[in-house]
Amino acid sequence: MSTKEKIQEESQVDTLEQHLNEIVLFNDDVNSFDHVIDTLMYVCNHTPEQAEQCSILVHYKGKCTVKTGTYDELEPKCSKLLEAGLSAEIV
Hints:
Layout: E1 21-26, H1 33-44, H2 48-61, E2 63-69, H3 71-83, E3 87-90
Antiparallel strand pairs: 1-2, 1-3
Helix pairs in contact: 1-2, 1-3
Keywords: Hydrolase, Protease
Protein name: ATP-dependent Clp protease adaptor ClpS
GO molecular function: peptidase activity
């Protein structure tokens, strides 16, 4: 006679739900591609490729999400983008 033992594991997953915001960068007729790329690399820690792709999307689509996170994480980054003369907001 064989006995099958069923082990039921209960795992409790503690999830902390945080609403994630986004920094959206908008197109303008003032800033050069190089300035936008350099600023995204410095402020948002983008790779050169990411920054270039975002700048192209902003140019052709009018806007692009450049960073996602909590409001507290994004607020200083958005402020730096604005100080650099870019048009951005947290949504």
